[in-house]
Amino acid sequence: MIKSESETRRVRMTKRLLKDALMELMTQKPLSSISVTDLCNIADVNRSTFYSYYSDTLQLLGEIENDLINQLPAAKPIDGHPDLNGTLVEEFTLFFTYVRKHARDFDVLLQTGRIEFSERIMRTVMDRFPQQQGKNQNKIITRWGYLYAMNGVIGILRDWIREDFPVPDCVFAKLALEMCFRANDFPERTAL
After folding, report:
1. What residue segments make up the domains of the chain, in order of their start?
2. What pLDDT, in 10s, does the model give residues 49-101?
3. N or C end of the chain, less CB within 10 A?
4. CA dist 121 → 34, 143, 158, 162 (Å)
5. CB-side neighbour CA atoms (13 Å) of 178
6. Got the DSSP string for 59-112?
7. Please, are residues 184 and 142 in contact by the beta-carbon 8 Å criterion?
């Protein structure tokens, strides 16, 4: 039997209510202290409805994280050496604009100590924004430089969100790229 469009819409709406409720509760207490009952009270759905979609709050959280990660903008291929004046800045700006658009969810997931989420962001960014080879031709050291830079970017991303985006997305993108360039010892950089 094929589900009707209204049934599918209802499922999406119910899941959205549960996701919003979880994000709201995570601003107040750790995930380990959030019960399904708390969640259902906030979302105004019954427990059987929750359990028809999720086995526990961790599975719901995983779906929220997957939704955010899967919709991150992907980079377009870059011809030649990357710089801070072209396509790469535009690509990173799209990434940070997406973060700003979903600020509440990123804020909750990054601020609540979800190390797994931070690591997934780093892996996704590294996959979608491939590493460029700098002066150092050693691939391991290049990867470590990239990881070092990504950890720094995640750190300042937390603060950028917490401070309510004190600089525009494009300025933040240039800063993040500058960190990556320095970590990988690229010779051609444009100062901020």
Report:
1. 5-64, 71-183
2. 999 999 999 999 999 999 999 898 875 555 544 444 557 788 889 999 999 99
3. N
4. 24, 16, 12, 18
5. 10
6. HHHHHHHHHHHHTSPPPPP--SS--SSSHHHHHHHHHHHHHHHTHHHHHHHHHT
7. yes
Q: 48 near 83, Cβ under 8 Å?
A: no
Rounded to the nearest angstrom, the gap between the alpha carbon of residue 153 and the centroid of all alpha carbons in its chain is: 12
pLDDT at 121: 86
The H-assigned helical ranges of the chain are 5-26, 36-43, 47-53, 57-70, 87-101, 103-111, 115-128, 139-162, 169-183
For the chain, list residues with pLDDT below 70. Answer: 1-7, 75-86, 113, 128-137, 184-192
Which amino acid, one-letter code, is at 95? Answer: F
**Angle between helices 115-128 and 103-111 in degrees, nearest 10:** 120
At 15, the amino acid letter reads K
Cα–Cα distance measured from residue 120 to residue 77, given in angstroms and rounded to the nearest whole number: 21
**Under a CB-based contact definition with an 8 Å cutoff, are residues 184 and 149 in contact?**
yes
H-run or E-run covering 187: none
Q: Which residues are CB-contacts of 55 (< 8 A; sequence separation ≥ 6)?
A: none
Ramachandran assignment for 58, one of left (phi > 0), alpha (psi -120 to 50 degrees), beta (any other):
alpha
Does domain 5-64 fall under CATH 3.30.420.140? My reply is: no
pLDDT of residue 83: 46
